[in-house]
Fold these 2 entries.
Entry 1:
Amino acid sequence: LSSRRLSHTAPIARLSPVTSLASSSISILQLRLASMMRIAAVLALLGTAQALRVAPKKVLIIGGTRFSGAYLWKELVDRRHQVTLYNRGKTPPVALPGESAEDFARRVESTTMIVGDRKVPEELMEKIGCQSFDACY
């Protein structure tokens, strides 16, 4: 076998069923890697398509402006869910690393913000009232 490496853009289809791997520069490992890369690409596309097929849900996030809540908020908005943030309003929302100003503005505009303290049940009931949500984080 040749020690020459196959680039990821080299066509694998040039091998015919009668081509011997011993006479080619493509190893079994390289063929398996190429096959796994194709499978990963298909699974990624299926995952994206499935995520887009899910009907938008009404989601309440308690907090949502810091730590993992901010990333959850972004992911839910990116998947077209209707998000409501309920927090004390002490930490303003900020763009996440790598998020464009336009994407951040879209995320904020598409979100309902309710200021209140989750530790005060009366305030929570007053602000949220009889709204219903499909999920609460």
Entry 2:
Amino acid sequence: MPCCAIITCKTKSQTASIERGGISFHRFPKEPNAREQWIDVTGRGNWMPTKTSTICSKHFTENDFIIKNQTTNSCNAIINKPSYVAISASVQNCEGTQDLQAQASSSTLLTLTPKRDKNLKRKYTEIQELTNRMIAKSTGGGPSKQKYSPALRSFALTLDYYSPKAYEYVRKTFDTCLPDRRTLRKWYQNMGGDPGFTAESIEALKIKSEKHEISHYCSPFLDEMAIRRRIEWDGKKLLGHVDIGSGIEGDHVGIAKEALVFLVTGINCNFKVPVGYFLVDGINGRQRADLILQCLNL
């Protein structure tokens, strides 16, 4: 929608079509001197017009136009005979030009400043974080690969197993003497998942029984779950064959179709701990009894 570039003029193409008299809009000339004179009379200071900036015909006289074949050639006519004198008189007759200009500039700043400030703050934060990382890397102040003793490692895993909130409290109270939770997850991943009884689970049960004065009674459970017959290579060995633990051999070696899982459940206390699993392709009563005895003797 074309509008007049004069700061005190509110004429737009929509209002011009309603008014009588046939108001027209004319773009700024390309000739440097005439263009500079047009910019001066707009009252906008250092403002620069765009390709679509225009001035309405209210600020011109009839002598300012050159008529060719009853058609106004606004571009050539205004370039050859600029009407900056008439426009200047029209602007001078308006009161409060400087105040309007100041208000327009301030409103523009109020509109643009919050968004610009937000972008600048975001860029400043990113640069600051990048600088801190570079300084830490150059000075050797990055994350340290601290080695923890086996006793502290066992204590951290046990405490986190029983109460994650207690673990975080101890870690904050004693100035991060315990490793971060992400380190614990890596330790859990490095425990291995081979078939058999899990030493860490048995150790956790021992610590729980020694920690409380009241005796805890528990009962082992076992269940068989169907799995898909499949052999996979994990980069080190083939997985999916029958495996009933170290030192215990099955009647035959084939592809496992079931997982025999052992679970210890508390009777007079609330806990459940999986203590091991075995891959089988059907198992007889003798083999099942041997596994149960081995679980009880751990």
